[in-house]
Specification:
Elements (H helix, E strand, L loop, with lengths): L9 H7 L8 H12 L13 H8 L3 H13 L3 E4 L3 E4 L6 H10 L3 H25 L2 H16 L4 H19 L2 H18 L6 H19 L3 H24 L5
Antiparallel strand pairs: 1-2
Length: about 250
C-alpha cells in the first residue's frame, strides 16, 4: 500500500497547517478530515505516525490520538495495532459533508446536538414506559448494577451506561427514533467518552438512570420523560465541559 515517507513531507505539513493552541479535538479531526477526503490521498494510504501528525498540526499527540479515534468510529480510517493507521476506501459524495458537520462541531453546535438528543431520548423514554416488557426491564436493572460495579472502573461504567440507553431504545419500539439517537450519540462520542470521569458525576448519573428505571417500572410515561430530561440536562453540562477542554499532551 502507498505510505507517507518516514518524515512528514513539506506538502503534508502545509496541508495540515498548524491548528491554533487550545483547539478542541473536533477541530483537529475536522482539519484531518479535510485532507483525507479531498481526493489527494488514495484509499489504503498509510498515515504518518501520531508524533508526525502532531508536529504537522502543531498540537499534542493526545489530541491527534482522540481525533483518529473519532475518524475510526466514523469509518474514515482503519487503525491496525502494530501496523499503523490507514485511510479507508473512498466515501460517497454525501459522506464527507455529513462527517465534516459532525466532526467540526464547536461549543454552539455541540449544544444544539445535545438539544436534539435530549428531545429524542425523552420521547424514547415516554414510548418505552408504554411498551417495555419484563425481559427489557431485567436488562435495564442489570445495566444499573453494571454502573454501580463500575465506580472503580470507568470503562465498565461507560459500557453499562451505553447498554441502558440501547435497551431503552429497543423498548421504545420505534426504529426511526432509535436510529436518529444512534447517530446523535455517535457524533457526540468523541466528547462523551471523556465526559464522565469524576466520582460525583458517576453517582449522579446512576441516580438519574435509577429514576428513569423506576418510572418505566411504574409504566408512567410522563415521569419517565421528565426523568430523562433531568438526566440529559446534567449530561449536556458535562459534555460541554468536555468539548471546551483541550486535550492534554
Amino acid at each position: 500500500m502507498p505510505a507517507f515517507p518516514d518524515s512528514p513531507s513539506d506538502a503534508l505539513a502545509a496541508a495540515l497547517s498548524a491548528v491554533p493552541a487550545g483547539t478542541p479535538v473536533s477541530g483537529v479531526a475536522g482539519r484531518m478530515l479535510e485532507l483525507f477526503t479531498d481526493g489527494s490521498l488514495e484509499p489504503g494510504t498509510r498515515l504518518p505516525p501520531e508524533r508526525q501528525l502532531a508536529t504537522a498540526l502543531g498540537v499534542g499527540r493526545s489530541a491527534v490520538r482522540e481525533a483518529l479515534a473519532a475518524l475510526e468510529i466514523l469509518g474514515i480510517v482503519d487503525v491496525r495495532p502494530g501496523s499503523g493507521t490507514y485511510l479507508r476506501g473512498a466515501a460517497s459524495e454525501l459522506l464527507p459533508q455529513t462527517l465534516s458537520w459532525g466532526l467540526m462541531i464547536g461549543e454552539r453546535s455541540t449544544d444544539q446536538l445535545m438539544e436534539l438528543r435530549a428531545g429524542l431520548e425523552s420521547y424514547c423514554a415516554r414510548l418505552a414506559a408504554e411498551r417495555v416488557d419484563e425481559e427489557q426491564l431485567a436488562a435495564l436493572r442489570e445495566s444499573i448494577e453494571g454502573m454501580e460495579a463500575g465506580f472503580e472502573d470507568l470503562e465498565t461504567f461507560v459500557a453499562a451506561d451505553s447498554a441502558f440507553h440501547r435497551v431503552l431504545g429497543v423498548a421504545a419500539g420505534n426504529p426511526i427514533v432509535t436510529d436518529l439517537l444512534a447517530v446523535s450519540r455517535q457524533l457526540l462520542r468523541v466528547y462523551n467518552d471523556r465526559a464522565v470521569h469524576e466520582a460525583d458525576d458517576m453517582h449522579l448519573a446512576l441516580e438519574e438512570h435509577s429514576a428513569i428505571l423506576a418510572a418505566l417500572e411504574a409504566r408512567d410515561g410522563d415521569r419517565a420523560a421528565s426523568a430523562m430530561i433531568v438526566h440529559m440536562a446534567s449530561a449536556r453540562a458535562r459534555l460541554l465541559r468536555a468539548a471546551e477542554s483541550p486535550a492534554a499532551d
